[in-house]
Amino acid sequence: MKIIDNLKWRYATKKFDNTKKIDNKSVELLKEAVNLTATSYGLQPYKVLIIQNPEIREKLKAAAWGQPQLTDASHLFLFCNFTEMGPDKVDNYLELRAKINNLNVADSADYGNMMKGHMASLNEEQVKTWTSKQTYIALGTLMAAASELGIDSGPMEGFDKESFDNILGLKERGLTASVMCALGYRSEDDPFLAFKKVRKPLEEMYEIV
Ligand SMILES: Cc1cc2nc3c(=O)[nH]c(=O)nc-3n(C[C@H](O)[C@H](O)[C@H](O)COP(=O)(O)O)c2cc1C
Hints:
By secondary structure, this protein is an alpha+beta fold. It has helices at 2-9, 24-35, 54-62, 69-72, 87-101, 109-120, 124-148, 161-168, 202-205, and strands at residues 46-50, 75-82, 152-156, 175-184. It has 9 helices and 4 strands; from the N terminus they run ααβααβαααβαβα. α2 crosses α7 and α5 packs antiparallel against α6 (109-120). The structure holds flavin mononucleotide (FMN).
């Protein structure tokens, strides 16, 4: 199975070759892969900022304990989850769904009310936890897709979210930084290349019930 080889090849890259850039066609494929990720109800409650501005990257690096991936990687995808899930978000989804499937949006009123009811039952922190969880599914898709394209990735949640939100003006936009992924090509002298994958034996991970 090719996916197993890809997943074995992938590792959390710490040192990127800053001379190598991902071509535009591959970036478009990565964007599409993320967009095709499953989310709860299909609401896609996040936005992905592709941070290419070198000055902003330097600022973010300072708020991420100086991790060099932030400035050396070809591309930086920052997943930002929605901080609120008002009824408008559900309506937007249902309108898009009706348009794409040629449905009458009024027929989805009960389904919409169910989703709105669920969102309304969550407090502010619960909403953020729920929307943030969705970004991690997309992160997994992104890394798997990148590995298929021979692109290295470095997932990161080691950063000060408050500082990221301030640097990027996220709160005003109803967003907050969740998790990010540096993408590009490994430097052959990344010390982490020497390490073998550390994974539990399958017997320990799985249990047949
Ligand atoms: C959500 C998430 C956040 C992570 N955050 C960081 C990080 O901030 N810095 C870092 O160097 N590695 C980070 N890692 C990488 C993990 O340490 C790494 O994936 C793990 O040790 C397994 O190694 P492998 O991915 O090379 O197989 C993160 C991984 C994940 C999935």
